[in-house]
Every structure is written in C-alpha cells, then in structure tokens.
Specification:
With 362 residues, the protein is of the alpha/beta class. The chain has two domains: 101 residues, no CATH class; 237 residues, Alpha-Beta Complex (Spore Coat Polysaccharide Biosynthesis Protein SpsA, Chain A). It has twelve helices and nine strands. The chain has a seven-stranded mixed beta sheet, sandwiched between helices. It has a two-stranded antiparallel sheet with strand order 8-9. Strand 8 and strand 9 form a beta hairpin. Helix 1 crosses helix 10 and helix 11 crosses helix 12. The termini are far apart.
C-alpha cells in the first residue's frame, strides 16, 4: 500500500521535474550575439506613463551610434508623459527619437503598435512596454534571427522588479512561472503563451496579423504568437534567455485587473496546450486532496512533495533570473497556489477590470 502512495507522490512531482529538465536546457542554449549593425525600429506604445518612463529612457543610451529608430506612440495620455519624452529627445539629439500620436478615433495599445509599425522605416521591429528597460543584446539577437529570413518572432524573458512586500513577491513569482510555462510549451513545440514586455518581429508579419485590435485592450503578444505559429510554423518563433526588467503591479487592485485582463483572451486562443497544462495543474496542485479526510497523513506527504518539488524548481528559475531574494518565499507561494487558481478563475469570469484608466468588461 505504501508503494501506491509513493507512486502518487512521484506522479505529482514528475511533471514539475520534466519542466525543470526542459528549462535547464533552455538556459544553456544562449548562442552567440552578433556585433553587427541594427536595422531595427524600437516601438514603445504608452499611456500615462510619466512616473514609469525613467527606466526605459535611461536604457536608450546603449543605442547611441547604432542607427536604431525609436518611436514612442502616445495612446491619448493625460499626464506629462509626452513632455518627458520630448525633453529626452532634445537632450539626446544623437538618438533618433520620434513621438507619434494615435488618432482620436483609435485607442488602445495594439492600435498604437499598429501605427508605429506602419510608420517604421526598418523591417525588424522591437516592441517593449513603457515601463521596461531596453536591451541592446536582445536587439542584436532580433536583427540576426529575423534578418536570416526564417525567423518571425523573438521573445525575451521579462521579470518584475523591485519587490513590494507580499504582493510584490507573489506577483514576481507568479509572473516568472507564467513566463517560463510559455517557454516550456514552446520547447515542446506547442507555443501558446508569451509576454510582450520585450519581443521582436518583422514589420510585414506584424502588419498582416489579426490582433483583435478593438475587441481586447491587450493580447498583442498572444495573438501574434498564434498568427506566426499558424502561418510560418513553430520554427519561426524563438525564445531567448535574455532577461529584461519590467515594472510589476503597484498593488492588489492593479494586480487583479492585470490577471483578469490576461484571462479575458483565453476564449480566442488556440487550445492545444491547455489540456496538458490542465493535467499538470490537477496533478501537481490537487492530487493530495484526494486522500482527505481518511488518509490525511498521506495527504500531507503528497502536499510536502508538491511544496518541496515546486520550491526547488522555482528557486532554480529565480536564480537563473537573478531574483535570489525570492528563495524564502517559494514554500509559501507553493502552499497558496491551490487556492489561487480557482479564485483567479472566478475573478476572470465575474470581474470587470481597469487598464490605463479605462474600464473593460470581459
């Protein structure tokens, strides 16, 4: 009988161990970075980002002398974001910084991205959020991958920093897990999840993609990933272990709104990856519940196996992502995950959300 429970413990741990094995190989596969020129256009859609622009503006300094084109696209900001960008442009005339304005009849991030792509002079487009730093290394990887002719989408690894007590540690850990789940399924040749805080594509592909511009305020990353995989095949997509900082949610309200916004797009996703993901969640998060209340001792054994395995895996990812400060938080995160999944699913069905000062009902 005891062997049966040991088997159950392994059944809960094996998906996580396979996850770790696949991602370990991903981190070893960095590849060389070209020192060639950058036929690239950086596109930054923004709305009311006055307080979050400094990280990105500071990172632009690495593009001096590269010839990169930098387009900021204003999505009807009501704060001083435009004034800050104009000041930066005047102070850095050697950088080709331009400020574009979204027409009054259009709104939203994807509309701003489409306008930037239409105005871009280069074929390689490097998109990033306004609260994200830019990476010269990632831009060079994009120029190489897309410039070779077969590549159409390059995705980096964004991370949340700095932390803000519990909400910051939780958001940073959960976001890290989501990003690497996307990498994991891509390496299994079933891409269905990525994040647009840092990504690059070619201009033609982006303009031809149906991004559901007016149905959803976000989702450019997911819809572009689906378009490229369907049109050009999985080999036209590449994830690289290029880690870039982006700003996490400022509090619970912003965090919940962000997760509901992300969940609202699942109705139009290609679902081939959702079944194995669902199996993984059931095995790793809820198997221990099957033996309550009669076999509570073995239930605790299974729960302990889950927490230990997940904590090891998450500590590996945190180390690779330069977030070692999260190590002590991992066991608590693992304990709360079984409760987090149904609660977040409930919010995604019943809640409206706010994004960039606008209200949406999914």
């Amino acid at each position: 009988m005891g062997l049966f429970w040991i088997f159950c413990a392994l059944l809960a741990a094996l998906p996580l161990l396979h996850f770790l094995k696949v991602l370990a190989a991903f981190f070893r596969d960095k590849g060389p970075v070209s020192a060639s020129g950058l036929p690239c256009t950086v596109i930054v859609p923004f709305r009311n980002e006055e307080g979050r622009l400094e990280r990105l503006l500071h990172s632009l300094e690495v593009f001096r002398g590269t010839g990169a084109e930098i387009l900021f696209v204003n999505d009807h900001s009501t704060d001083a974001s435009c004034e800050r960008i104009r000041l930066f442009s005047r102070e850095n005339p050697e950088l080709n910084v331009q400020l574009l304005q979204l027409p009054a009849e259009q709104k939203g991030k994807k509309a701003a991205m489409k306008l930037g792509a239409a105005q871009a002079r280069n074929e390689v487009l490097y998109f990033c959020d306004a609260d994200t730093q830019l990476s010269l290394s990632f831009a060079r990887r994009a120029a190489d991958f897309i410039g070779q002719g077969g590549g159409h989408l390059l995705q980096g690894i964004p991370r949340y920093r700095p932390y803000r007590f519990f909400i910051g540690d939780w958001a940073a850990t959960e976001f890290m897990a989501l990003v690497y789940i996307g990498v994991y399924f891509w390496r299994l040749r079933v891409p269905f999840l990525n994040n647009a805080a840092v990504m690059a594509t070619d201009r033609t592909t982006f303009l031809e993609a149906d991004l559901n511009v007016f149905r959803f305020p976000g989702g450019d990353d997911i819809f572009l990933l689906q378009h490229v995989s369907r049109t050009y095949g999985i080999d036209a997509i590449k994830f690289v272990p290029e880690i870039v900082d982006t700003e996490g949610p400022a509090g619970w309200t912003e965090y919940i709104s962000q997760r509901v916004r992300w969940a609202s797009k699942t109705t139009v996703l290609k679902r081939s990856a959702l079944l194995p993901l669902g199996i993984y969640l059931l095995l790793s998060q809820y198997l221990w519940l099957c033996f309550l209340p009669d076999l509570w001792t073995w239930s605790l054994v299974l729960l302990g196996a889950k927490v230990l395995t997940e904590s090891i895996l998450l500590c590996f990812l945190a180390r690779r992502s330069g977030m070692r400060g999260l190590y002590l938080f991992m066991p608590l995160y693992s304990l709360l995950l079984p409760l987090f999944f149904p609660v977040s699913a409930l919010f995604s069905v019943l809640s409206v959300y706010r994004w960039k000062g606008r209200v949406y009902d999914p």
